[in-house]
Design a protein that fits this description.
Layout lengths: L22 H14 L12 H12 L5 H19 L3 H8 L4 H15 L1 H13 L5 H19 L24 H25 L3 H21 L6 E2 L4 E7 L4 H4 L2 H19 L8 E3 L9 H4 L3 H11 L3 E10 L4 E9 L4 E4 L13 H4 L23 E3 L2 E7 L6 H4 L8 E6 L9 H16 L3 E5 L5 E3 L5 E4 L6 E7 L2 E2 L3 H5 L2 H16 L9
Parallel strand pairs: 2-3, 3-4, 8-9, 9-10
Antiparallel strand pairs: 1-14, 2-13, 4-5, 5-6, 7-8, 10-11, 11-12
Helix pairs in contact: 1-2, 1-3, 2-8, 3-5, 3-6, 4-5, 6-7, 7-8, 7-18, 8-9, 8-16, 11-13
Length: 523
């Protein structure tokens, strides 16, 4: 046995430092790695890339050069978001009426902003752990990545799109989602990527065995947690029908199309209510399926809709804008039809889409900025949950479903989750698939079935484990039918939200800082 290492295995020389690569090559690799990361998300779902590509970035990070790390992280982010949210210009140009050049400029500015967050993570990693040792890969890097993701999901009202944890919905790590949420899944994913990077950079057989054991423990633990049911059925199952009207966005608000739109939704609903082999308990129409204010059609179309809903012995949730004429504020709303009218008003609005932030300061921008900005008001946080067949329902509208910590405000009271959306804004792009993927994570985090009705797709019924039970096609008129089971109880994530993960991240960062100079890498 060689005395160089316990157990007789001689320590091998360290892997060549990435700083030995030409700077241009390291930069190109970081940009390419980021550009490949969207393939880990829906609709491609090559989830292993969410391990390999962040690991490549970590391998590229230099020794004791935080500014170089900042640049590599920024290039990684440009590739990641440059392709991953490339659909933004479609909403602005094709449906917002903005010239293509201006739409591309706005999209580029958004990408340039979002790339700051992986840049921050890379900088903080090298700042906290200057040398390429286990403190960098197992403490600083995973914690810095998740801290940057959390900041991105909160700062300036937040944009938590393409969080790393979403890529693992169909992997064993998904078992941690009901416990730690999407950020917790992302932390364990980046810990796996860090272990891979450490195995590449630190050529010590003993360490590699330990890393393999760590990864196997994490993934086996996730697989075991997947067998755990955190919530339980309550009451009878409900027959539901999700109506996908497939109304083209450029026609949706044209007055000439209003009558045809209402006729289509009502006709599809009548077919469901008239099915002799199926008693439908709940019909759901998408976001703003009714292209008119509530007060404009209250005494006409809505009166007829109430009557037919009651005659069918059913209930209806429908997207409709509501104008408060007393305060002259209007809301993006979901209305319950089938008894006394009740409403949910959207709380988390899309900045520069549904409202203009800092309106008192930026109001003059309305005349010069290349964006179509609406002027919705936000609903209050203390709204009473809508009731369907005696079950409280947690409703979210479009963009709101990507905010897990906000969605759990309706729980554990809510027994079902409903999300209505109008993904026609995204066109035929990656966005509807990514949006559905995030909705699946909300169902898994909360242990609730989630019903998602959209205008042009993808409408779907998601079970309490995040699995797709039924889904409709895109860009077709369709009805998605399923029997859903209300559930009660609370997952650990519903009870504690993101706090455990944030405490864990803070602890890892502090520990990484504490050992930054004590760790002496073996040569």
């Amino acid at each position: 046995m060689s005395p160089a290492e316990p157990g007789g295995a001689a320590a091998r020389p360290a892997a060549p430092a990435p700083g030995m690569l030409p700077p241009w090559l390291g930069s190109l690799l970081a940009l390419a790695a980021g550009a490949g990361l969207p393939l880990a998300f829906a609709p491609f779902d090559v989830s292993v890339l969410a391990i390999i590509l962040p690991a490549l970035l970590l391998v590229l990070l230099p020794e004791r050069r935080p500014r170089r790390a900042l640049g590599l992280g920024y290039l990684f982010g440009l590739g990641w978001f440059g392709l991953g949210v490339s659909w933004v210009h479609i909403s602005i140009h094709e449906f917002g009426g903005t010239p293509l050049a201006a739409a591309l400029l706005v999209a580029a500015l958004l990408v340039a902003f979002l790339a700051l967050f992986p840049a921050l993570a890379a900088w903080l990693t090298v700042r906290l752990a200057p040398t390429a040792g286990w403190p960098r890969y197992l403490l600083a890097a995973p914690a810095a990545w998740v801290l940057a993701e959390w900041l991105r999901g909160w700062l300036f009202t937040g944009f938590p799109w393409l969080l790393a944890g979403y890529t693992q919905l169909d992997s064993p790590l998904a078992g941690f989602a009901p416990v730690l949420g999407v950020y917790g899944v992302g932390l364990l994913l980046l810990l796996t990527a860090g272990a891979l990077a450490a195995g590449i950079r630190i050529r010590r057989n003993g360490l590699r065995v330990g890393l393999l054991f760590l990864v196997m423990t994490l993934w086996l633990g996730g697989a075991l947690l997947q067998r755990q049911d955190w919530t339980r059925p309550t009451g009878a199952a409900l027959e539901v029908s999700l109506i996908q009207g497939n109304i083209a966005q450029d026609r949706k608000w044209q007055e000439a199309w209003q009558r045809a739109t209402l006729a289509r939704y009502l006709g599809l609903s009548r077919q469901e209510w008239g099915d002799p082999e199926r008693q439908v308990d709940l019909v759901i129409w998408p976001e703003t399926a009714i292209p008119a204010f509530y007060h404009q059609i209250e005494d006409g179309f809505l009166r007829q809709l109430r009557r037919e809903t009651r005659q069918a012995g059913s209930e209806l949730l429908v997207g409709i804008p509501v104008l408060d004429r007393e305060h002259w504020a209007y809301y993006n709303a979901v209305m319950r039809v089938g008894g006394e009218d009740s409403f949910y008003f959207k709380r988390h609005l899309v900045p520069f889409g549904e409202y203009l932030p800092l309106r008192d300061w930026l109001g003059t921008l309305l005349q010069v900025m290349p964006l179509p900005v609406a002027d919705f008001s936000a609903g209050t946080a203390d709204q009473t949950l809508l009731q369907v067949r005696g079950h409280p329902v947690g409703v979210s509208i479009c963009y709101e479903v990507i905010f897990g910590a906000e969605l759990i405000a309706a729980l554990p009271e809510a027994r079902l989750l409903v999300n209505v959306s109008n993904d026609a804004w995204f066109g035929d792009s990656l966005a509807p698939h990514q949006h559905l993927q995030m909705a699946r994570m909300r169902a898994l985090e909360t242990g609730r079935e989630l019903l998602r009705a959209t205008n042009t797709g993808i409408s779907a019924v998601i079970d309490h484990r995040g699995g797709l039970r039924a889904r409709g096609p895109q860009f077709e008129v369709a009805v998605v039918r399923a029997r859903v089971q209300p559930r009660e109880g609370a997952t650990p994530y519903v009870q504690r939200g993101d706090l455990p993960v944030l405490l864990l991240v803070a602890g890892m960062l502090l520990l990484g800082y504490a050992v930054r100079y004590r760790y002496k890498p073996e040569q």
